[in-house]
Design goal:
The structure holds two protein chains of two kinds.
Chain A (H helix, E strand, L loop, with lengths): L2 H20 L2 H22 L3 H24 L4 H5 L2 H7 L4 H15 L1 H14 L7 H26 L5 H28 L5 H31 L1
Chain B lengths: L1 H7 L2 H32 L14 H28 L2 H33 L7 H22 L3 H33 L14 H33 L4 H12 L1
Helix pairs in contact in B: 2-7, 3-4, 3-6, 3-7, 4-5, 4-6, 4-7, 5-6
The chains are: A mainly alpha, B mainly alpha.
Chain lengths: 228, 248
């Protein structure tokens, strides 16, 4: 396999995943709808006082983003396992590392990217100070990519199981915690007038590390799941 | 070297070896635990500030230390089983998870009981407590994943991957929680108040830590023996063993 051929293969795989996603526009909107609904739960639960909501907004927005990512991660490999295309992918000569990366990238483009771009709207609904909104969008764009990679590991390990849904949350939520800490930390810093840069830099470092390591774990997980 | 390596892959050999180890390790562990507890609880001076309540340290610290070390034992066993496909490493990894979870739980509960008289609260969202809680979640995640697979050989592989991902993540989780704590709360409670611990308290503590390591080893071997018997229940040697037990 030449590098060029591998790259072409992965781009085709990415394009296939994106086309599959875009053919079902309603499913594309589901994570956003979920995000909006859960955001709407917080004023109902915490009371509508703008000060309280604004103070909790960084945490609320980040936790909801995390949950929405978690719920969509479950389905990354499922339909491809069921129709057998995952098995073909494992038999293909292309390195599984890059194929796994293509799957995760497609997942992020269809969920995390949209969520990051739509997040300013939800931030305004919760009364987050406008100064913190760029930090929120930037931290979500970086952070959801890390979440997609980690979620991919959980999805790869549980895709062969019948009752994977609850299990994947138990497996990967502990690994989501650092991302949550630094992501909401970035927004909190911007809210207090401090630079959000250091937090974003750490999120970037986490992203680099997960790009390097997570596809290996995903590939190993997929080999196990296809065996079941 | 290679013959030893192959022997470790053989269930009956490991079953007999663990049996002969346990025959002397189990009494030693029991004696050490009882002796250490008596030494720590009765023959050390009460703390200057905390009085007698600090004595829970002789359970709390050993449990926490061994709980953390247990995760690495599990991850190393997982790596060995993935790299060399060694069946016994699978079994060791599987056996580590519930023991580690139990020790983490003991550390959390004793910490909380210790926290009530000294800090005036059962639970603080402090960096160390939070990371121990996350460690508990990681252990339980491994148990849950193992139980979810019907095929136990695949379950072990999946758990090995998960525990390796965990080893990469534990330092990150620990650092991030540490940083989060220092950002969000002033350091109102000093956890390492007196950084130097008096030798008269340190020696029983070290003794108890050693005793807990022995306890961990005993529990690990016992768990492994059960798992070996369950997996090999259809083989001749297990049937012979069962018949001998039933006759004798």
């Amino acid at each position: 396999m030449t590098p060029a051929a591998t790259a072409t293969f992965c781009l085709r795989l990415l394009r296939r995943q994106l086309v599959l996603g875009l053919r079902r526009p309603v499913e594309l909107g589901n994570p956003l709808l979920f995000f909006a609904m859960v955001v709407a739960l917080f004023p109902l639960g915490l009371g509508p006082a703008p000060d309280t909501l604004a103070a909790f907004a960084p945490g609320i927005l980040w936790i909801v983003a995390l949950l929405s990512n978690l719920l969509t991660s479950d389905a990354v490999f499922r339909s491809d396992l069921e129709d057998g295309s995952l098995e073909q992918l494992l038999l293909a000569p292309q390195p599984l590392y890059f194929s796994a990366l293509a799957y995760v990238l497609a997942h992020w483009l269809l969920t995390g990217l949209l969520l990051g771009l739509a997040s300013p709207l939800f931030a305004l609904m919760l009364g987050l100070a406008p100064a913190a909104i760029p930090a929120l969008a930037a931290s979500l764009l970086l952070g959801t990519a890390v979440l997609s990679l980690i979620g991919g590991i959980g999805a790869a390990l549980t895709v062969g199981l019948k009752r994977g849904g609850m299990l994947i949350s138990l497996l990967i939520l502990p690994f989501y915690m650092p991302v949550l800490i630094f992501g909401s930390g970035a927004v909190q810093a911007a809210l207090n007038g401090n630079p959000a840069g250091p937090f974003l830099a750490i999120l970037g470092a986490l992203l680099c590390m997960s790009i390097a390591l997570a596809p290996m774990a995903i590939a190993a997980g997929l080999r196990i799941s296809v065996d079941t | 070297m290679w013959t030893l390596f192959h022997k470790f892959g053989s269930p009956p050999w490991l079953y007999r070896l663990s049996g002969s180890i346990l025959r002397w390790l189990l009494p030693i562990t029991l004696l050490a635990l009882i002796g250490g507890a008596i030494w720590g609880l009765l023959f050390t001076a009460p703390d200057f500030r905390q009085g007698n309540s600090y004595r829970i340290i002789y359970i709390h610290v050993p449990a926490a230390v061994v709980a953390l070390a247990g995760y690495y034992v599990m991850a190393i066993a997982g790596a060995v089983s993935l790299i060399w496909r060694m069946k016994m490493a699978d079994i060791a990894m599987r056996a580590c998870a519930p023991i580690g979870a139990a020790l983490t739980f003991v550390a959390l509960v004793t910490g909380s009981i210790w926290g009530k008289p000294t800090w005036g609260t059962w639970w603080v969202w402090d960096a160390r407590i939070t990371s121990m809680l996350i460690l508990l979640f990681l252990y339980l995640g491994v148990v849950a994943l193992y139980e979810a697979y019907e095929n136990k050989a695949l379950a072990a592989k999946a758990c090995a991957i998960l525990s390796l991902v965990g080893t990469v993540n534990i330092p990150i989780i620990y650092k991030s929680v540490d940083w989060w704590y220092s950002l969000h709360q002033p350091a109102s409670i000093k956890f390492t108040g007196g950084s130097t611990i008096d030798p008269s308290m340190l020696y029983p503590l070290l003794f108890m830590i050693t005793a807990f390591y022995c306890l961990f080893t005993c529990a690990l071997l016992l768990n492994m023996r059960v798992e070996i018997l369950q997996r090999e229940q259809r083989t001749a040697w297990v049937k012979a063993l069962a018949n001998k037990g039933a006759a004798g």
